[in-house]
Amino acid sequence: RMKSPAHRTRDIERQAGYLKPEHCAPPPPRSGSDTMWFIRDGCGIVCGVITWFLVFYAEFVVVFVMLLPAKNMAYSLFNGVIFNGLAFLALASHAKAMCTDPGAVPKGNATKEFIESLQLKPGQVVYKCPKCCSIKPDRAHHCSCMCCKRCIKKMDHHCPWVNNCVGENNQKYFVLFTMYIALISFHALIMAAFHFVFCFDQDWTKCSYFSPPATVIFLILLCFEGLLFLIFTAVMFGTQVHSICSDETGIEQLKKEERRWAKKSKWMNMKVVFGHPFSIAWLSPFVAPDHGKADVYQYIV
After folding, report:
1. Which residues are catalytically annotated?
2. Which residues form the Palmitoyltransferase DHHC domain (predicted)?
3. Tens digit of pLDDT per residue, the chain (301 long)?
4. Under 8 Å between Cβ of 223 and 231
5. Within a domain: residue 187?
6. Residue 9 lies in a domain
7. How far is the CA of 60 from the CAs of 38, 161, 186, in angstroms?
8. Distance separating alpha carbons of residues 31 and 37, to the nearest angstrom
9. Are 273 and 244 within 8 A, CB to CB?
């Protein structure tokens, strides 16, 4: 018999009596709240290191190739403060996105004791993930890669560049990361263009501490890096903002899941991710979003 589209988008949908909790091992003891979240995935760690290396390379070229040799102190100071400030916020956002629990559902909680604690009424339905043996909240999905190995609440996608899933608890930091990387990429491209013009008008030996061939190579590599990451992160930032405003994660859009949650305004959806109420803290990776009375995704539907 053919399954309906709604059933194809969920892992398993069963009555509580058929969950077979005896097949699930007791959940592992919860670690302390001060334990840092970190995915031990070789590929993700390499991607994260590459990200930091590319930002530091851009810092080197901007500071030592373009700004310090410039004769206009005000120009160097102004652009140096802006670029380094944005780069610091980008790396801080990356670190927070990587080391924040994205909303992981406890593994192995589909035990008899846990199911009894839900106090299910006759006819109520719960979802169980057969991969991590957990009772899933609504809108949670199991990470398909082999590194997270658990269900993530409101999971959007797994991003190797932050070595983590993007979910309910760290989406703010991922959006800030893409925004700040796009801004420093654009800023670096503008400065590189001005520096090329400046060097062509003067003696190349007077516009850089390095030899003319080395200066050209540094600038070309920076332009290539800046253009590539500007396009990539700007598209990702726009995609994330659209996903937040429509209150539909990337996985839900990909699977074309039927909307079964209350529809909210775009502004309310933004506040659910970045915090209540609107403030300058929305732009800070050091302030955890205050979800206030945001919807809680229940285990029972």
Report:
1. 159
2. 128-256
3. 444 444 433 433 334 434 455 455 554 554 444 577 888 888 999 999 999 999 999 999 999 999 998 888 999 999 999 999 999 999 999 999 999 999 988 887 777 777 777 777 777 777 788 888 888 888 888 887 767 788 899 999 999 999 999 999 999 999 999 999 999 999 999 999 988 888 877 777 778 888 888 989 999 999 999 999 999 999 999 999 999 999 898 888 888 777 777 788 999 999 999 998 889 999 999 999 876 544 444 444 4
4. no
5. yes
6. no
7. 28, 21, 16
8. 10
9. yes
Q: What is the DSSP letter of 165?
A: E
62 inside domain: yes
Token pair in block for residue 231: 């396009």
Domain encompassing residue 171: 38-102+160-283
User: Residue 143 and residue 97: Cα distance in Å, rounded?
Assistant: 16
Question: Is residue 77 included in any domain, yes or no?
Answer: yes
Residue 150 CB contacts under 8 Å (≥ 6 apart), including other chains: 104, 105, 107, 132, 134, 142, 143
> How crowded is residue 259: how many other Cβ atoms within 10 Å of its Cβ?
10
Q: What's the total number of domains in the chain?
A: 1
